[in-house]
Amino acid sequence: MLDSGYDRRQFLGLGAGAAGLFCSLTDASQVTHLSAGDVGRIDAAAAGVRRPKGARRDAVDRLSFQTPQPQPGGQVREYWIQATSATWDPMPTGRDEWMGMRLPRKRFRAFLYQEMTAGFASPKSRPSMPGPTLRAEVGDVIRVHFLNADRRFNQAVTVHSHGVRYNPEYDGAYLGDFTRAGGFIAPGESFTYTWEATPDSVGAWPYHDHGPNHIINVMRGLFGLVIVYPKGAKRPDREFPVYLGSFLPQISGRDDVIHTVNGRAFAGNTPTFRAKVGEDVAFYVIGGNNDFHTWHIHGHRWKGSGGAPVDDPTVGPNETRIARFTEDNPGRWLYHCHVFSHMDRGMAGWYLVEP
């Protein structure tokens, strides 16, 4: 439990950016004792974290690394992404189209990734949950120019990716005194991450903040998706990133927990996915919180990782399940998590298939 009497120095002195306290926020069943004020104190403490001096206590800490380049035939896939805060409404229509119910709306301050044009000259898209999808083929390198443009939360943040290959400089993880360059990007600062798309990177992977306050900031929306394709492979006609997450009262300011798809809750607010018969469709489903979810699309099934047909696979924290199939069943279809309490609290929506 967070003792609200901790001052900033005591809080940070708990070690590793107070990771133990941050972790207590990841399970809705364990945080009823925490208030929005407690989260505010955690934010204040995170804003007070200064850049580590970079301890070099071991030989591995003194290693230096070169920036990787594409393999023969590969290329540089370049992205310009900034972290920013924005007002977010999980239920912007104020209505659940599935059950025909009115919903109580409440906006809160989210922390989001946003794609920019080269040099961070102008927005290329709106801040979103998930953030921009990053794509590459085997043999490429992904170069992410990252700017921490947010002054509202006033915290160091990063970009840490799963699935791709990188050296410690580009890990994007805060490691206390052992933090490398990419693990602490203060407000107003920028850094360029370089990741390699190797043969064992094929698939879909999450990326997210891994700075000093990463758990809370990921819960606020600092997450996205990386897709790595086999070299020269045909890409799906339709690709849908699907982040299954939740907003706790301490984050959203609501009185209840809501379960979300891409940061939205309840049909008509969650994404309405669209496809046509005959198209090659891929859903990239990622577990975006501390819960286990399932991914179910009415009227559809596909091959699971073992090759057998599935229609309701389980996805755990930061796991990915890919539902890929050739569409052959037109109509309006419901999708949802089959953990009933998650479905009931918003994790459902529409999939519309045209003939």
Radius of gyration: 21 Å
Name the overall outline. globular
Tell me about the largest β-sheet. Answer: 4 strands, mixed
Q: Which series of helices and strands comes N to C?
A: HHHEEEEEEEEEHEEHEEEEEEEEEEHE
Percent in strands: 25-35%
Question: What integer is the average pLDDT?
Answer: 91
Contiguous uncertain segments of 5+ residues = 1-32
- Extended strand count: 22
Give the spatial strand order of the biggest sheet.
4-1-6-8
- The helix tally amounts to 6
What does the model show?
By secondary structure, the chain is mainly beta. It is 11% helix and 33% strand. The strands form seven sheets. It has a four-stranded mixed sheet. A four-stranded mixed sheet has the order 5-10-9-7, with no helix packed on it. It has a four-stranded mixed sheet with strand order 12-11-14-20. It starts with 7 loop residues before the first helix and ends with a strand. It is globular, with a radius of gyration of 21 Å. A hairpin with a 4-residue loop joins strand 2 (95-96) and strand 3 (101-102). The model is unreliable at 1-32 (pLDDT under 50). The longest helix is centred in the N-terminal third of the chain and has 12 residues, at 36-47.
